[in-house]
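An instance follows:
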Amino acid sequence: MPATVGRRVHLAAQLPGIHNVTVWSDPRSESQISIDSFIRLARTAERGKFDFFFLAEGLRLREHKGRVYDLDIAGRPENLTVLSALAAVTTRLGLAATVNATFNEPYEVARRFATLDRLSGGRAAWNVVTSHDAFTGENFRRGGFLPEADRYTRAAEFLTAARKLWDSWSEDDLKADAGTGEFIAPGAGRFTHQGRHFDISGRFTTPPGPQGHPVIIQSGESDTGREFAASDAEVVFSRHNRIDAAREFYRDVKRRLAAYGRRPDDLLILPTAGVVVADTDEEAAAYAAEISRGLVGPQTAIAHLEAVWGRDLSGYDPDGPLPDVEPEDEVPLLEGHSVFRKGRAETARQWRRLAEERNLSIRELVIEVGGRQTFVGSPRTVADAIDDYVQTEGADGFVLVPHLVPGGLDDFVDRVVPILQEKGVHRDDYTGGTLRDHLGLSAAPRPARWGGPGRRLRGGHGGHGAIAGPSRYGGNSGIGGHDGHDGHDDKETSA
């Protein structure tokens, strides 16, 4: 690889399943929940030397006017189960999962991530999210009791408790010494945590993997969310893929790090992005317009407008003007959707102003505000735009969300990645084994005592792809399995 001439471009991939970001009706689209789809997309990302593969989470199917919102992809397998399978058929690609801190417990989540980190040889990441609504809570015993103001305090304490569990094993605790007959040290795994939300003590069963702690990801947009990211996260997802807003978000979050004794490079900011690549810019633009209309059909356009207006607008023409009625700000018609949850009256005013300025129909407006691809053009145009975005501090890289599953990343990996490599801003090959290596992050995310990687069991099952070779999951196993980060507002889940 040529000497790096600029800041490194970090790349990740997401298999979409919510927020109607896939053209599932396209003849080339395949199953959103088959293990074959997960495997193909993950292997494509690894072929492109991406940092990690990401799965969002939905804890309840969204409902539009009391019916399942079938414009989303319905049916989502559990993330960590899928990523554990992918650990067997990939060797270097990071494996990142959204797991909810509102409806889980620290012990079980810490154990599952420690297991994934061991199975994958140190490639696990946790996107810490909360859930804001009683609608999602109905699926759980706890219900919707947690006041919104407490979501971050619970999440912060949840993460603190999980770190105590991972640190309960020191580097020398797993002995497996046949000579002395000692397998583990007497105090291995002992932990105690007492706080407002959790009062737990006992012995943690799972020695941590090679990373010690998984990489911590967060996706908050509010002031509280940004502060949480600055204090505790190592990657933050962003919805800002317009350069001016992206740079403001980037500067704001990065400047907060110093208050916590952290450097700007201790936190990577990765917006989600869609990419359309063709031979020429003109061909790509035409294809992008076709994709946008596939993503935002007539039903979707009206549903999004109803989510903001809080009214039944089914009698309006999606290719006609916006309704002349005012929104009902307190009436939710789309349950389980975080995007249009707050400030809907102001959103409606902004949408109306935009539609009037550009003479947009309902459908054209919805495409403009949320249905457009971020990078569109020839391979060179796309590569240059991504590179410029990173070099001018709009982002540290991107989470790419393809509009087709499972082949939606092929053109990018085959045609754009080589140009980024030629520019010296993307790796030719992996140089480390863990996700922390890929991201350039410290081995210890916190200044507290470090638990270390632990030792592999005799005959170890810790290395890259140690569970099985690629052929094991080569057939159509049919296991069941966007917008990038489960909640555009304050790291919520999107059900």
Notes: The longest strand covers residues 94-100. The chain is about 35% helix and 15% strand. The longest helix spans residues 151-166.
